[in-house]
């Protein structure tokens, strides 16, 4: 059981000991720290925070604890109830709120939950602000309000529809063109909020929807990380239904993966590539993704005359570099699309709408579209950490060993070889070392990954 504190938020497993897991005490403690941080950085008499959650089983419990903690601090709450991460991000500025909290552990299994913390722009807090909140939590420097100054709760369940309308109103989204193509799409909502909002968006774009695991009961039917090894059911159903493609989202709907019409993975790395290809074809500009993302985005960006840059892993790092470089689209290779025309946050709805519009303008199958892009293959591996493993020492050793290669060390160690690369880093959200590789063939990527897993284990003595 684990409790992880990072710029990605406070994330942990439900149950167990206080301080070691995301217990009710820890949920209250970190909600108190966040609320206190907002109050310390505002001159307003009354603050407002937007809250939403995914459908995981522990959601209502954590939701009630966090919400009432903010009320106890004298902060008003706008409660979206069952929602998505990008929906909450959109709601914060629309409500002129001072911050937002999404209660979700994203792609983690059902025993996990988390507090994802937003600023007044509806964007994730930066590292400095996150560190201040952790300091407040550690000191337990909370001052709660008296009975006449408690916050109030306002429920608003309209934001999923507002979010859909916002996406459909984007200039590069053409619902009419999509409707004319009469697409048939299978949706795997992993029994969370994506099972509500994605089919609703598709139907408003004139798409025939086949629903798979779209009941938002929090009983994830498979590992909720949208990777090939977890998606056998939808791959099979796309073929059986003779669908044009399939859509898979994670529990909080900020990661997006497609299944091609032949039942094969489009590749979560290529979600961003396809959407960027469409956007760059309509609007000239630059792109950003993180260091663990495919070279294919760089190739597509340069084809359209733009400049590509890589950031450290983490949405806040991608967003920071996107703003600095005036990127018109970016994201993460895990299927996260960030389109500033909408907002600075990963958003599966935006990705779905852009992809459908792109596909509607082409007379090709999804499999053929995938084949038209630069062909790279990735292998994503991880090694479970123990207290005995000194990750920093391992990364330092690897840096020294490969010092004659093209190395980037802004986030772990990325080693660029002429035709392939490997990225080694400690995860922000799980107690693991991630080993990502990419090469011109899957076999080459797998072999490179096996080599580095072996090297790390040898260095670590495991």
TrEMBL record:
It comes from the Bacteria. Residues 8-142, 164-263, 270-375 form the Alpha-D-phosphohexomutase alpha/beta/alpha domain. GO terms for molecular function: phosphoglucosamine mutase activity. The keyword DNA repair does not apply. It holds the Pfam family PGM_PMM_II. Keywords: Isomerase, Magnesium, Metal-binding, Phosphoprotein. NCBIfam families: Arch_GlmM (TIGR03990). PANTHER family: PHOSPHOGLUCOMUTASE (ALPHA-D-GLUCOSE-1,6-BISPHOSPHATE-DEPENDENT), PHOSPHOHEXOSE MUTASE. It is an enzyme of class 5 (isomerase). Belongs to the phosphohexose mutase family. It comes from Flavobacterium jumunjinense. This is Phosphoglucosamine mutase. Its cofactor is Mg(2+). InterPro entries: A-D-PHexomutase_a/b/a-I, A-D-PHexomutase_a/b/a-I/II/III, A-D-PHexomutase_a/b/a-II, A-D-PHexomutase_a/b/a-III, A-D-PHexomutase_C, A-D-PHexomutase_C_sf, A-D-PHexomutase_CS, Alpha-D-phosphohexomutase_SF. Its EC number is 5.4.2.10. Residues 400-453 form the Alpha-D-phosphohexomutase C-terminal domain.
């Amino acid at each position: 059981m684990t409790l992880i504190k990072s710029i990605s938020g406070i994330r942990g497993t439900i149950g167990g000991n206080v301080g070691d897991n995301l217990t009710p005490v820890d949920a209250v403690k970190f909600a108190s720290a966040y609320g206190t941080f907002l109050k310390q950085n505002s001159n307003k008499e009354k603050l407002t925070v937007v809250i939403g959650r995914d459908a995981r089983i522990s959601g209502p419990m954590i939701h009630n604890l966090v919400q009432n903690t903010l009320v106890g601090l004298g902060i008003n709450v706008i409660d979206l109830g069952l929602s998505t991460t990008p929906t909450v991000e959109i709601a914060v500025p629309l409500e002129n709120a001072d911050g937002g909290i999404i209660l979700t552990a994203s792609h983690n299994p059902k025993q996990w939950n988390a507090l994802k913390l937003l600023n007044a722009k509806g964007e994730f807090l930066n590292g400095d602000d996150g560190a201040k909140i952790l300091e407040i939590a550690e000191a337990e420097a909370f001052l709660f309000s008296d009975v006449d100054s408690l916050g109030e709760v306002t429920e608003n369940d309209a934001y999923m529809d507002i979010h859909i309308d916002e996406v459909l109103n984007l200039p590069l989204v053409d619902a009419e063109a999509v409707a004319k193509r009469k697409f048939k799409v299978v949706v795997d909502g992993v029994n969370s909020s994506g099972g509500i909002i994605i089919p609703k968006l598709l139907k408003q774009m004139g798409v025939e929807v086949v629903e798979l695991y779209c009941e938002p009961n929090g009983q994830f039917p498979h590992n909720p990380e949208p990777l090939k090894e977890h998606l056998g059911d939808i791959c099979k159903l796309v073929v059986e239904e003779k669908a044009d493609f399939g859509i898979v989202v994670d529990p909080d709907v900020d990661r997006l993966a497609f299944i091609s019409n032949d039942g094969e993975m489009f590749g979560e790395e290529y979600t961003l590539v396809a959407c960027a290809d469409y956007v760059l074809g309509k609007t000239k500009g630059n792109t950003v993704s993180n260091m663990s993302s495919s070279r294919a985005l760089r190739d597509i960006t340069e084809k359209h005359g733009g400049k590509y840059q890589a950031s450290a892993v983490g949405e806040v790092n991608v967003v920071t570099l996107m703003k600095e470089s005036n990127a018109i689209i970016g994201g993460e290779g895990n299927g996260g699309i960030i389109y500033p025309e909408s907002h600075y946050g990963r958003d599966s709805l935006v990705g779905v709408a852009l992809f459908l519009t792109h596909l509607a303008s082409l007379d090709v199958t999804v499999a053929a579209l995938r084949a038209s892009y630069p062909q790279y293959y990735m292998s994503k591996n991880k090694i479970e950490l123990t207290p005995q493993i000194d990750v920093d020492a391992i990364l330092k050793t690897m840096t020294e060993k490969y010092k004659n290669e093209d190395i980037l060390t802004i986030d772990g160690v990325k080693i660029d070889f002429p035709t392939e690369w490997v990225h080694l880093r400690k995860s922000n959200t799980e107690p693991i070392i991630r080993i990502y590789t990419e090469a011109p063939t899957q076999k080459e990527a797998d072999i490179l990954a096996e080599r580095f897993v072996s090297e790390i284990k040898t260095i670590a003595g495991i």
